[in-house]
Amino acid sequence: MKAYKDLTKDELLTLKAALEVEYKEMESKGLNLNMARGKPGYSQLELCMPMLDVVNSSSDMRTMMGNDTRNYGDLDGIGECRRLMAYMLEVEKDNVLVGGNSSLNLMFDTVSRSFTHGVNGSTPWYKLDKVKFLCPVPGYDRHFRITEEFGIEMINIPLHEDGPDMDLVEEYVNNDPAVKGIWCVPKYSNPTGISYSDEVVLRFANLKPAAEDFRIYWDNAYGIHHLYEDTQDKILNILEECKKAGNPNMVYIFCSTSKISFPGSGVSAIASSLENIEFIESHMTVQTIGHDKINQLRHARFFKDIDGLNAHMKKHADVIRPKFAAVLDTLEAELSGLGIGSWIKPRGGYFISFDSMPGCAKAIVAKCKALGVVMTDAGATYPYGKDPQDSNIRIAPTFPSIEEMQVASKVFVLCVKLCSVNKLLADMN
Description:
Elements: H1 9-27, E1 33-35, H2 42-47, H3 79-89, E2 96-98, H4 103-117, E3 132-137, H5 141-149, E4 153-160, E5 163-164, H6 166-175, E6 179-184, H7 198-205, E7 215-219, H8 238-244, E8 251-256, E9 268-271, H9 274-287, H10 293-303, H11 306-335, E10 341-343, E11 352-356, H12 361-370, E12 373-375, E13 392-395, H13 402-428
Parallel strand pairs: 1-12, 3-4, 3-6, 6-7, 7-8
Antiparallel strand pairs: 2-9, 4-5, 8-9, 10-11, 11-13
């Protein structure tokens, strides 16, 4: 089939008429499908139900160190859970502080603490005229909402196949003292699924920030979320590389089990230098007596170690891989060669990133919604919800069933085709 841009006006009008008939037929089905967020599906949630039996009223509630998890204590998290999260992050246990059920909460608190009390003794951000963050795009909308909540100026940094544009990152970080942070999802990035190359990680570690309180917010949310056993991405250890480069305090690493165990009932963690952890803990002791240690115990006893985590994640992969295939196969079969969209085949994570023709993303998402398929808002993957090209769309395949995902994929490609034809016809007028 010819690329749409090579079609004549009459050919486009004929195609539009056929697509509109198909759209009407789909409209009559009364669909109600939601793939707006990266949520685990029912079958994934079922995988962790045995965890609820690990700790019960007859269980020994003491940690390996003999501390009673039912009582106060262990502000930084029980030892066995700190060790479990250290396995996930490939760091030492002493560099880990266990939080509550959400890594997003830890990120918010870290930014908030920087405003009220500075970073390891630096000037609190609320006293500064300007605070800026770098935002690789397309990226995670909730990162951007945190910084927007605090009135931080966000600067778009293009995200390439190997990571953020490091020439731009270095230019901003090394020369502008108002730049205090950068959001990163380094492995199976949200939404593109790309992983940072060794070169990119090393350039991050060797930054020479103009601001002493500059920090890399390294959200390793998908570190063990592989889709395939034989092709798994591996990235350099940023904490280790920062230490080698003489920047031991420059990075905060975040993770959680939200998509490993149960969203809202998981365990989160922050890893950093001992100096950073000590500073964070000194303020956390005012904020809370301690997080849910019984839940920490439950996770530690269920997963045990990295082998237990990896075995569990293979089960997750077996559930969601066919859903990703349903989307990718449909995109390839229906859109390949038409010149109206591009996408990345991820090797892990929770999303597929699709780029439409410029000026079409909002229209595509709106038409999908009109057919009963709810997607992430177009523009959400950019700061302030403003995609300058109006082209990026985040596809979240995990929550619907495989059958629903097959239908949703057909709806999506239909809307892509129809909106692309409409755009080309409008450009001819």
